[in-house]
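Marked as duplicate of an earlier ticket. Keeping the data here for the record.
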Amino acid sequence: MPGPELSDLQAFAAIATARSFRGAATRNGVSASSLSAAMRRLESRLGVRLLNRTTRSVTPTEAGQRLLTQLAPALSDIDRALESLRAGNDTHGTLRLNVPVIVARYVLPALLADFLSEHPNIRLELACEERFVDVFAAGFDAGVRYEEAIERDMIAIPLGPATQRYVAAASPAYLRAHGTPEHPRDLARHRCLVHRFESGSRPAWEFVRDDELVRVRPEGLLASASLDVELAAARAGHGVVYTFEEVLAPALADGTLVGILEPWWQRFTGPRLYYPSRRHMPTPLRAFVDFIKQWPSPPSTPGAWL
C-alpha cells in the first residue's frame, strides 16, 4: 500500500496545531470538508486514530501527538524550501509588526538594523503598544509578546534575551529617609511607583525566592504608563520602582538608584515573536523568521546586552 500523501499529512498538522477543523481551514484557505476528507484518508491508510473529535474540541491522540512532533520540523523545512523557491533571492513586500515598548526600545534596534541591511527591499511597519489586541485582526503579520500572553495555537519563537529580570530599586536619599525593605511585604509601608497599562490595569508586583511567591499590590502617589516617568521619579527619590532590569541598569550603574530585595527579583522568559500556524506565510515574514533563527541572541547576563 502506498504511503500517505504529503497534502494529507499537512492537513493533519494544521488541524492538530489549530485544535480545530474550522480554524485550520480558515488559516490555510481551504474548506473544513476537504480537511475532514484528508483526515479520513490518512487515518485509514495508517490504521490508527490520530485525532480525538468531540462537538467542542479536536485534540491529538497519543499517536497523533507523536506524529505531529516528528512531522513539524520536516513540514516546516518543506514550506521554507518552497517559499524560498517562489520568492527567489529578491524578497519584496511589507512586514507589519506589533510589539511592546520595552522590546522596541531594548531588543529590536540592532536586530532590525541588520535585518533591513540584509533585506533592503522589505518595507517595515512597526507599531509599539502595551495593549493586548488581536494583532492579526488589526492587520499585522506578527506580534511580539511575553509567553503568558500568547495564545496556545500560535507559533512562537524566541526574540532577544533568553531570560530577563524585574528589579526593585530606590534612590539612596529615599532609602535613608524611609529605610530599606527587607521583605516584599515591607513594601506596604513604602511609596511605590506603579506601572499603569493603557487598559487601566495595575498589575501586582511578584517576587520569587526559592519556591516562595509573594504578590504585592503596590500603593503610591504615582501610577504611570511611562517607563521614563517611573525611572525619573525613582531617581528623584519619590519611591520604590520595580520594572525591567534593562530600564534601571544605567541608574544602578551610576549609583542614582540602589537595588533592593535582590534575592526576590523575578526571572522570566524573554520575548517571543508569534504568528499563526499557516502554510502560506507572507514572504517578508518568512524572511524575518529565518533571520531571527540565525541572528545571535543577546547574552542573558544582566545589563550585558544594553
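See parent ticket for discussion. The longest strand covers residues 163-170.
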